[in-house]
Amino acid sequence: MKALRLAVGDTQQQFADRMGWAVSSVTRYEISRTIQGIALIAAERLADEKLFDEMGELLRDCIRKDTGIEDALFDRMVADADQKGKR
């Protein structure tokens, strides 16, 4: 998470505001807490929006593992979202 925050040039407070999180959550994600669920999806969307392709792919892999969705189904969902402009 720290790599993404630094890539967008934010302080922890700015990143927390951007993501809608508490600063303490950003700190925990950077130090020790595993990012999961909605927070993981939000991070992936930010990476994708900022065209951090490698980071976005890494986060998508984490989402696949977190949700247990098969790769082919996940890839179709991403492609559908891309076509609808929701990503």
List the helices and strands and how they pair.
Layout: H1 2-8, H2 12-19, H3 23-31, H4 37-49, H5 53-67, H6 71-84
Helix pairs in contact: 2-3, 4-5
Task: Give an account of the 3D structure.
The protein has one domain (2-84): Orthogonal Bundle (434 Repressor (Amino-terminal Domain)), CATH 1.10.260. The model has no long low-confidence stretch (mean pLDDT 88). It is built from six helices and no strands. It is 76% helix and 0% strand. The radius of gyration is 13 Å and the shape is globular. By secondary structure, it is mainly alpha-helical. The chain has helices at 2-8, 12-19, 23-31, 37-49, 53-67, 71-84.
Briefly characterize the structure.
The chain is mainly α and 87 residues long. The chain is 76% helix and 0% strand. It has one domain (2-84): Orthogonal Bundle (434 Repressor (Amino-terminal Domain)).
Tell me the helix content: over 70%
Alpha-beta content class: mainly alpha
Element string (H = helix, E = strand): HHHHHH
Contiguous uncertain segments of 5+ residues: none
Classified by CATH, the class is: Mainly Alpha
Largest sheet: none
Cα-to-Cα separation, first versus last residue: 19 Å
| Name given to the CATH architecture | Orthogonal Bundle
